[in-house]
Structures are given as structure tokens and as C-alpha cells.
Amino acid sequence: MRRLVFILSLLILPVLSHAATYADLQRSGIMEPAQVLRTGIETLTSYMEQNRNPEPAKLAHYLEQNIAPYFDFKRMATWAAGPSYRYMSKQQRAQLVLSIKSDFMGVLAKRLTGYSGSRIEYLRPRGNLARGKVILGVKIHTGNGYPLRLDFKLYHGKKGWKVYDVVANGASAVSHYRNDFVRQFRQQRVMARSIR
């Protein structure tokens, strides 16, 4: 019995430790999607509380190192491009992934300063863990009227649980990027026709 308790404590210790990184938790194999989300949010809110007005470059570096690994920007780009993704070159695909990542992280950085000190309510998970897809919701209570509702869509892949879409008050980030992609694609077609 003591041995079992010792082994369980060794397995749970990385989850309880704030020093454990996202990669450490994912490699341990014990990190469920709700824990992925909670760890990411706690990491981010802790950083924002310690750095009330971070320099943009430092914030961008922090987000790249500590928050970006929670997201699958390649999957976001694939969904945003839709069927066109198959016909894109490797360079175009990489550029689309980089563009979405840059925009997403930039928007996140801008919005973060407004939510420090807010109360976060974790909602009941939806979806099917066994199938590897879940939606985890949170409400951010700022004290200024209605709470902000965020739904994080996660899937379980080779690298563990990853966020592939965020829905803010009903507006999907991937749908936004898809609309942008379609608009840019149409503009390029119109320009190409006018050159002929």
C-alpha cells in the first residue's frame, strides 16, 4: 500500500507543481484536457499578475515559450484554408500557419491586460474523451457586466491534448481565419484576372 501511495504521489506531483512545464506534463501522460486548459490559464494569469504592464517584446516572448505550445496552429491553418490547403505549396502552408499564429498570439497579447484580476469559472466539459475531442468552457467574470464566455476546442493527438479553436461569445477563431482566407483568395483571383 505504501508503495502504491508513493507511486501515485510521483505521478501526481508534476501536475501539482507550478514549476512543471507544459511539455513535462504532456510527457507524463497523466494530463487530461481540463488540466491542460487550467494549467495554461493559471500559467498565463500568474504571469500577468506578476507583470502588470509587460513590455510587448517580453510578453510576445513569454507567449511564444509558454502559451503557444498549448495550440495546434497547423490544424487551425488546415481548417482555415479548407480544401484549398491540399493545393498549397509547403511554403504557402508554412506562411499561413505563421500568419495565423502571429495574429492569434498578437490578439491574445493585446487582450490580456484587460482581464488581469478577473475571476475565472471553469465550466463542465462537453464532448467525448474516448474519441479524443472535447470542448472546455470558461467564463471570465470581470465585474463589468456580462462575463466573457470562451470555449476551447481540444483534440488528442500524438503530442497530447492541443487547442485547435477558441470560440469567444459564439465567434470561432478558426471561422474568422477561414473568412479572412477566402476573402484574400478572392481578392487575389480578381487581381490575377485584371492583369490578364
Describe this structure in words.
By secondary structure, this protein is α+β, with helices and mostly antiparallel strands. The protein has helices spanning 2-16, 22-28, 33-50, 56-67, 73-81, 90-112, 173-195; strands at residues 119-122, 126-128, 133-141, 148-157, 160-168, 171-172. α5 crosses α6 and α5 crosses α7 (173-195). The chain folds into two domains: 1-31, no CATH class; 32-195, Roll (Nuclear Transport Factor 2, Chain: A). It is built from seven helices and six strands, in the order ααααααββββββα. Helices cover 55% and strands 19% of the residues. The model is unreliable at 1-22 and 24-30 (pLDDT under 50). Strands 1, 2, 3, 4, 5 and 6 form a six-stranded antiparallel sheet that branches.
Provide a compact summary of the structure.
By secondary structure, this protein is α+β, with helices and mostly antiparallel strands. It has helices spanning 2-16, 22-28, 33-50, 56-67, 73-81, 90-112, 173-195; strands at 119-122, 126-128, 133-141, 148-157, 160-168, 171-172.
